[in-house]
Design brief:
This protein is mainly beta. The protein has one domain: Fumarylacetoacetase-like, C-terminal domain (Fumarylacetoacetate hydrolase, domain 2, Alpha-Beta Complex), CATH 3.90.850.10. The strands form five sheets. A six-stranded mixed sheet has the order 4-3-15-8-9-12, with helices on one face. β17 and β18 form a beta hairpin. It starts with 12 loop residues before the first strand and ends with a strand.
Length: about 230
């Protein structure tokens, strides 16, 4: 039996819809600027350049319905609604047409962002980690197994704050489709069961403050709701 010098951390996981089962989370990959209108609102050219990726720690996952505390070191805390896919089969250099065979399920999530820290890092050519990869920065709804997923190529994606719709688009607007960006990601590293991919956010991102109720969904797939708590 392996002996650890400290108790191992608990396994990060995401719920599975309609069951008591859990999906173990290995890594969280995020696709940057994958909707043209969002690229424009962030001051970037939306031309179809190769996609780029950043990561969040596995234990950044937050359950649907949770209260997420306003994080430290920011005065500009943003929401970003996203289609989320979960890898269930190991693979590298995956062909685009074979990507669906590697996806276990899908759902909706929110890429919470300390925008001021992200933009300060971006402007200095530094990594985005402090803006993106902080505690409780990845609320994710229960996963829907692929057999029950209607589509990963079309469907309304939206987010509202206190009932007012802020983001409203269609996943058909993805610059790089799920099949394309998962295939490209698998060329850089081997994807494995437990990997989560947050596929990018449409235009309309903005600030949230303590007390805000944030809701959203991907049509025909899943809904999400969180509340923003007091500053940590």
């Amino acid at each position: 039996m392996t002996s650890y010098v400290l108790p191992p951390p608990a396994q990060a996981s995401v719920a599975v819809v309609g069951t008591d089962d859990r999906f173990p989370v290995r890594r969280i990959f995020c696709v940057g600027r994958n909707y043209a209108a969002h690229a424009r609102e962030m001051g970037r050219d939306p031309d179809r350049e190769p996609p780029f990726f950043f990561t969040k720690p596995a234990d950044a996952v937050v359950e649907n319905g949770a209260t997420v505390p306003y994080p430290p070191e920011t005065e500009n805390f943003h929401y970003e609604i996203e289609l989320v896919v979960a890898i269930g089969k190991v693979g590298s250099n995956i062909a685009e047409e074979d990507v669906p065979n590697h996806i276990w399920g899908a759902t909706v999530g929110i890429d919470l962002t300390r925008r001021d820290l992200q933009l300060a890092a971006r402007d200095k050519g530094r990594p985005w980690d402090w803006g993106k990869a902080f505690d409780q920065s990845a609320p994710i709804s229960p996963l829907v197994p692929m057999a029950d997923v209607q589509s990963l190529t079309e469907g309304r994606i939206w987010l509202a704050v206190n009932g007012e719709v802020k983001q409203d688009a269609d996943i058909a607007d993805l610059i790089w489709s799920v099949n394309e960006h998962v295939s490209i990601l698998s060329q850089s590293m081997t994807l494995a069961p437990g990997d989560i991919i947050m596929t990018g956010t449409p235009a309309g991102v903005g600030a949230i403050v303590p007390g805000d109720a944030v809701t959203g969904a991907v049509e025909g797939l899943a809904e999400i709701a969180i509340t923003i708590g007091e500053r940590v």
